[in-house]
Amino acid sequence: MKTLSRQAWNWLALEPHQRQGLRALQICLGLMLLFRASTEGRFAAYLWGPQGLGEGTSGDFLSAPVARLADGIFTVAWGPAALVVLMGAAAISLVFGGSTRLATAVALLSSLFLAARLPELGDGGDNVARLVLTYMLFALPANKVHRSGSLEVWLHNIAILAIGLQIGVLYLTAGFLKATGDKWSNGTAMYLVSQVEWFSHPSMRQLFHNPYLTTVASYTTLFYQLWFPIAVLTRLRLPFLAVGLFLHLGIAGFMGLVCFSLAMIGLELFLITDEEYARWASWRARLWRASRARLRAFVPATEES
């Protein structure tokens, strides 16, 4: 028991973990927010402006006096556009890794205000992104020099645990909710989803007319989500993460849920450890050197002939 406690203490206190995975997550969330800013920015006044569709208030996360003051930004025509610009600038900073802690704070606040004004606009990825951005406020920037055992290392690793637990809860909840629905348990859910025009590509509608494909896809999705929290703690973790990447790429392509898919792909990449990223980089470097060596050997032979 003491050994286990010591290992947990050392894990939390000595070195920051998942720094490469966190960087991948920052990039994916940045791309997600940049996609939103670039596609919704031109309609900012219509969506969130004084005479726009949105009528919500930031009172859900701010006290009433502060919320009344903060909501004043939606009473002027340029206010929503300014928030979108701020969100886009923060997204670019996250993608390129500049001032990531400040960019995280700006991205979180701007997206919170926009979501509070018009909550119906999100696609599910926004909710998980805001939770993760909150945890990321306590994480170390990718290249920041740290002191072993310092408070910032503790906060970083606690944030890493919080993000990991959030992923597990997200998948387990989604899986259990699906398992209690008769459409998923009888294997017809993917057909029904594919026929909803709002959430499907035309090619997807025809594809899922095949009953075998529909059944396999429905049960595979259900199985994946239910077993994900267990699988990521076993040797099946990397294969499960690879399946998840293809699953969410398919969701982006066939269902058009780009923001949701980018957020989930970022969370999948987050779970890859720094050691696994290092092994991948080493393998890629060896492959590049071998390719260059074969190319150099081929060019002289070609010139001689």
What does this structure look like?
It is a single chain. With 305 residues, the protein is an all-alpha fold. 73% of the residues lie in helices and 0% in strands. It contains 15 helices and no strands. Helix 7 runs antiparallel to helix 8 and helix 7 packs parallel to helix 14. It is globular. The mean pLDDT is 85.
Instruction: Round the Cα radius of gyration to an integer and report it.
Output: 23 Å
Q: How many DSSP E strands?
A: 0
| Share of residues in strands | under 5%
Detail the poorly predicted runs. none
Largest sheet features? none
Number of helices: 15
SSE succession = HHHHHHHHHHHHHHH
Average predicted local confidence, pLDDT = 85
N- to C-terminal distance: 71 Å
Question: What would you call the structural class?
Answer: mainly alpha
Report the principal-axis shape: globular
Q: Could you estimate the helical fraction of the residues in percent?
A: over 70%
